[in-house]
């Protein structure tokens, strides 16, 4: 899905405070200082070349992904370390298995599964006469949920409303003598599901990184009330040739432990650092002569990094999991704080993994859940279109040949930038200090609100700084500013001189980038 790097821990300085007696010398007055370990990502690292070397080659759907480019035989043991094995492709079900009630979002000893959509309803929320309970268990009786009943009425013609019976024969005729009684109300949106299909979470962690409170664990905890996900944490250090081989063997064992690929969704996190100059990702450390200590960090280019972290055994396994959804998220902050991501992750779990919405449909809910993340970094959403369907077809769609797919595919890169008229004009942080006279918070806007070219002038020296709205960008989730309730009428009204805020959206289509995305970043984010 996406890569969320976390910080390496450093030693804190322990500060001691001494109390001086009356006869002692007076203390020297100085600035009080304290040392704290950083929690942002990024830092310098020596660039290295992936041991081997290895090279990514084009391929999907079980074809070879990692190939050696040695001009001579591989060193002893290396061939086994990078050998590629063909894996079975994930076999889809007709639709998601939804184990929770559409109305009360709870379970029950008996649930009615809709024959036309993924919804289920419990026996507490839909009640039928006791004399009909045995009859509806027959093989030729089908259940239609209230949502599908509404859709049928709407498609039948304008103004047509019919009583809800719920249970029908193969021709769609009601089999109950009296309508069913609904004892519930919709707590979610009408299109929401409460999915319980198995989900696999793989959390790859660079050695020495502290991942307490990480987004991966937040996703695991958020999913647990609905479906307990299979969760694995893999600590990696691939800074040397021997460590690459050791990691590859560990991945083979992981695939064996997981078993056949039967997950509806696989979410992969990679926690690492990035070099602030080149964007290379930290892969591990050089071997130290002192036991238990690391030498300097080693960083690989993006392709080399993902080739080594995802050797052929796990790469072939993951390719089957990308059959229905290819999405990745990236964050472009130079010193990225992963601790700001959990609200974004919780919204993703709720709207996408649990309620079953497409990522594109739920993206605004995800953005609204993480305003502080937006002030810190841009959010880059990468997805592949026209190549995979996330949702398996219904019976009627399957019979109509809905699984035919277009051979053409495009990689769409959407960048979301949070803006605030006075603090983050057009997605750019306004300097806290004037660049000329060094006065603090001395800016004043000299242009009309929401102008394409917004200017701020220093009130002290007149220095002007200009921000321009990105070309071909559109605005979503715009909010005009502070709003409150009128004491007279009680109505919602704008108070004071509130400033507008929202998100800028920039979309780019890259038709030639599909294979590269599927190979290296479909499950892990590239950090820029």
From TrEMBL:
GO molecular function: zinc ion binding
Domain of life: Eukaryota
Keyword annotations from UniProtKB, A to Z: Metal-binding, Zinc, Zinc-finger
Record has Zinc as a keyword: yes
PROSITE patterns named among the record's database cross-references: ZF_RING_1
Protein name according to UniProt: Uncharacterized protein
Lineage: Eukaryota, Fungi, Dikarya, Basidiomycota, Agaricomycotina
């Amino acid at each position: 899905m996406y890569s969320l790097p976390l910080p390496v821990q450093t030693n804190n300085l322990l500060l001691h405070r001494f109390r001086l007696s009356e006869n002692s010398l007076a203390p020297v007055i100085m600035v009080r200082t304290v040392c704290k370990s950083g929690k942002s990502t990024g830092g310098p690292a020596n660039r290295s070349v992936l041991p081997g070397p290895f090279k990514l080659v084009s391929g999907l759907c079980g074809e070879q992904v990692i190939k050696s480019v040695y001009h001579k035989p591989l060193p002893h043991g290396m061939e086994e370390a990078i050998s590629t094995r063909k894996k079975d492709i994930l076999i889809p079900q007709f639709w998601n298995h939804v184990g929770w009630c559409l109305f009360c979002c709870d379970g029950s000893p008996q649930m009615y599964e809709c024959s036309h959509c993924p919804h289920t309803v419990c026996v507490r929320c839909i009640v039928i006469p006791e004399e009909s309970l045995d009859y509806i268990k027959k093989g030729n009786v089908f259940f239609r949920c209230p949502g599908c009943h509404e859709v049928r009425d709407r498609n039948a013609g304008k103004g047509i409303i019919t009583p809800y019976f719920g249970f029908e024969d193969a021709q769609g005729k009601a089999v109950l003598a009296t309508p069913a009684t609904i004892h519930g109300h919709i707590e979610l949106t009408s299109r929401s599901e409460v999915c319980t299909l198995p989900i696999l979470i793989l959390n790859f962690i660079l050695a020495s990184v502290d991942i307490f409170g990480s987004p991966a664990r937040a996703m695991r905890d958020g999913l647990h009330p609905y479906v307990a996900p299979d969760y694995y944490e893999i600590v990696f250090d691939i800074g040397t040739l021997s460590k690459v081989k050791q990691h590859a063997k560990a991945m083979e064992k992981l695939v064996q432990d997981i078993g056949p690929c039967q997950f509806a969704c696989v979410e992969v996190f990679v926690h690492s650092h990035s070099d602030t100059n080149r964007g290379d990702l930290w892969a591990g450390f050089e071997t130290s002569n002192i036991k238990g200590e690391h030498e300097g960090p080693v960083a690989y280019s993006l392709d080399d990094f993902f080739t080594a972290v995802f050797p052929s055994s796990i790469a072939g396994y993951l390719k089957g999991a990308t059959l229905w959804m290819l999405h990745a998220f990236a964050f472009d902050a130079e010193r990225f704080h992963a601790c700001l991501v959990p609200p974004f992750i919780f919204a993703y779990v709720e709207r996408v993994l649990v309620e079953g919405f497409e990522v594109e449909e739920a993206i605004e809910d995800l953005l609204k859940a993480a305003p502080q993340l937006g002030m810190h970094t841009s959010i880059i959403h990468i997805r592949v279109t026209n190549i995979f369907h996330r949702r398996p077809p219904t019976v009627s769609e399957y019979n109509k040949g809905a699984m035919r797919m277009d051979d053409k595919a495009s990689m769409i890169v959407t960048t979301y930038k949070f803006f605030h008229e006075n603090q983050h004009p057009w997605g750019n942080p306004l300097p806290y200090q004037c660049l000329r006279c060094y006065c603090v918070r001395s800016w004043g806007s000299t242009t009309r609100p929401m102008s394409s070219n917004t200017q701020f002038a220093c009130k002290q020296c007149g220095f002007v700084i200009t921000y321009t709205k990105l070309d071909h960008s559109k605005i979503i989730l715009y909010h005009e500013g502070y709003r409150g309730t009128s004491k007279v009428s009680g109505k919602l009204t704008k108070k004071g001189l509130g400033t507008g805020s929202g998100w800028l959206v920039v979309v780019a289509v890259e038709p030639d980038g599909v294979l590269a995305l599927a190979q290296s970043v479909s499950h892990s984010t590239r950090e820029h």
